[in-house]
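Q: I'm teaching a short session on how sequence maps to structure, and I want students to see two examples side by side rather than one. Could you give me a first protein with its sequence written out and its structure tokens following it? Keep the formatting plain so it prints cleanly on a handout.
A: Of course. Example one:
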Amino acid sequence: MFSTNYSLSVSETINAPANTVWELMNTFEKQQIWSPRMVQERDAKTWLEWVDGTEWAISFREWERIGAWHQINLTIAPHQHIHSKLVFTKPRKTVSSTQIELNEKAWQTIVTRKLQGKLPFFLFWMKPMMISMISKDFKAGLIMLKDLTEKGKLETSTNYSWEVFAERLFGFWITNTAHQNDMPKVMWADYSTLMQFAKENNIQLLWWFSLYPKTDLKTGIFNFVSCMMVNPSVKESITLPENMEWHAVPWWKSLKVTHNWDYRYIGNSWSALYGSAMHLKKKINKKQPAYELYLTDPRTTSNPAEWVTELYLPLR
């Protein structure tokens, strides 16, 4: 069968020597600690099987919601690299080659994850999206490895609530577009503008929330809305500037997960949410935007361990 090749590479700089980083990645069990997949589904089945007559083991991982794979380490150079074969069995069988490389420079270590794989030719149109999604997953794992190495712990988690009726939201907001790498900076600037307007006009704020009307995984471009939730009666006495508008999000049946800890890890919870929709065979309502509801304010709650965000994915 004809196929199309794809490859990707992502890196993260960790403030530690290579031997320290190596101690957190030199076994299958240690790699699971900083795997975004394990955060998404902590009750995943994992086990090792030793290959007869060799020193190699095969790590099997099976997630109820997001698929299954096994990994075979092919070559290992301590403090330098691990080369593995990655075989996905669910939801679609694929075989890939993957590497983790360490490059130490001046008491810092650049960790790079690479992958080379193939797609059936009739799925060529999925290639950009596949590269984007796997790159995000690898990057999230490297950020977790960085925090585990530098801070000694990880405290992020995803809690499932399944199907709920999301409450009606009303507020004033700013719409913007940015690449996913720039989105945190752009979004925070928009929220700062909204907060300043609220302060100048003595508006009592209830919650913050962000809507995602359109995302392009191929290009990494996101259309998003930064919003301050208020009592609807506020609209009667306040005139908004041109860059803001009033809007309401209706009650809607949704899948919900709760994300705990730093916003840098929130992509793990979004992956878990979409993976759950696929697993439960739920149909996503593309006419209604997915959104995040922030239950804590980083300005007054400085400890990321206390940050709580609810994620909602509207269903048909």
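Q: Perfect. Now a second example for contrast.
A: Example two:
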Amino acid sequence: MPEELSKNTAITNVIDSANPRIASRTELWSILLKILAFDDPASKSQNLRKAARKHLDKRANFETMPMRQQVRLFTSIFGDQANIENAAICRLVNFVLAFEDLNRFSRIAFDTWTKPEWLAEPIDANVSKLNFELSSPEKLWMTSALLSAPAWTKIAQIEQGSDDPRVQLISEFIELLRKDAKQFSESNGTPHTDTLLKALETWRQLLKKHRSALPGSFLPKIILLVEGQTESLIVPTFAKLLGLDFNQMGAHVESCGGAKQVVKYFLNLKELTVLPIICVLDADVSESAEIINDGLREQDRMVTMRAGEIEDSFSLTTFHRLLNIYLKETGCLEPISFSELQTQAGERIEVLDRLFRIRGLGNFDKIGFAETAVRNLHKSDVPDDGKRIIGTIEEVYNAGIKLRFQ
């Protein structure tokens, strides 16, 4: 007991000397968004530590502190210590979200997150009793989540999140946790193992209830890597027109910024996540396609466009209709005729760049066109390449997504 008291006193002294500045609601919202984002443990932890450093005295050497000092400082900046009940509820919310990370990321991801010196840190006793096969870094991740909980109890009060379906989910979860508030005072705010397990089950049931309203990027089950923003807008629309709901499926679409970046994302993610990854590439990137194909795991897929880019995949009739709707929306009074599109040689983007420059419109805006397409596409407009992409996603989903801890 004296030794533990001495450690706590030392931590308190470190916190006082670091002179932490309490976060505003806007800064708290930024932190909550970082936790809710689909990020591997190392990246997420780095983002959180970076945010915490901005609130400390410049002389405080945050990165060299033991993990327990870091998390205590984090909680002093972003946490809710108003009473035992609030503190315990924040820990439980953080716990279930950290457990969702365990579900989606591989052991390698948590090994990568852990600093060697952290392995000497004590594991929370209630985490150790959980009936799951967890590695030491994974147990440390869960311990860190319990110790460094931000003020989830304030999430409903943050104006920026008033219409966010994730806020509605977490707010309802918090209200359910409050019904068992008595146990928190009895445990001095430290959730026991049975409380952690009960919270997990409550969370799972609530997540099923809210899933269709939540964005696919939140706690995803499938990762879709596409080259650009155009695909990230149009592919989910193809899915909706063909009867698939990316939100309900938990399909996260990542716009990578080109074929080489799709390769980079894929090679990194496949080592870190257990989720299936589906890569969508244009037709003219055979080298990138070969690299990805060689690295596909059993659950992964790759779809290569046959028509070129996604704009090339539409029938000429559909493309012509969407193009003139786009021109009208941008204020251009001179439509492009069907014959102009039909007789021009080259890929569609090149053709449109020429036609747009002739009209004094500059280069063709792919993203602006995609936004128009999303609002005006019909089921009959979905091209064969679009059907192949959505068919692949549906096949992977129907085969069953294997999270680590179902």
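Q: What should students look for in example two?
A: Point them to this: The chain has a mean pLDDT of 90. Also worth mentioning: The two ends are 39 Å apart (CA to CA).
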